[in-house]
Design goal:
It is a single chain. With 113 residues, the protein is an alpha/beta fold. It has one helix and eight strands; from the N terminus they run αββββββββ. A four-stranded mixed sheet has the order 2-1-4-6, covered by helices on one side. A four-stranded mixed sheet has the order 3-8-7-5, with no helix packed on it.
Length: 113
């Protein structure tokens, strides 16, 4: 059996990257809410947050997407893979949104007092 000299180092690098990703995601969630974009869908599709919460949209898809509020209250630039857009909701209400390029992608942010 052939031994892999770099495998132990590779395993450590993978573990470090996984931990950094987990910490980065936890940090985003601690300060607000994260909505991820993947496979032409928002996840979670429906979110409830308190007034003053910042929601971050992160494009994990390999296609460009935009975030557009149906009431016109917010709109992102084109988000390429890995790009993010954040918006702070300072008024209660329901905020339906779509991807401006793929309108079959939709979601809703419910903001409570």
């Amino acid at each position: 059996m052939r031994r892999c000299n770099g495998c132990a180092r590779l395993a450590l690098v993978v573990a470090a990257l996984s931990a950094a990703t987990a910490i980065g995601t936890a940090g985003a969630l601690a300060s607000g809410q994260l909505v991820q974009i993947g496979n032409f869908a928002f996840s979670p599709e429906n979110v409830t947050v308190a007034v003053g919460t910042t929601v971050t949209f992160r494009n994990n898809d390999d296609m460009v997407h935009t975030i557009v509020a149906e009431d016109g209250s917010f709109r992102s630039k084109a988000l390429d893979t890995g790009d993010e857009y954040s918006f702070t909701f300072d008024k209660p209400g329901d905020y339906a949104f779509v991807c401006g390029l793929h309108p079959f992608m939709h979601g809703k942010i419910t903001v409570t007092q």
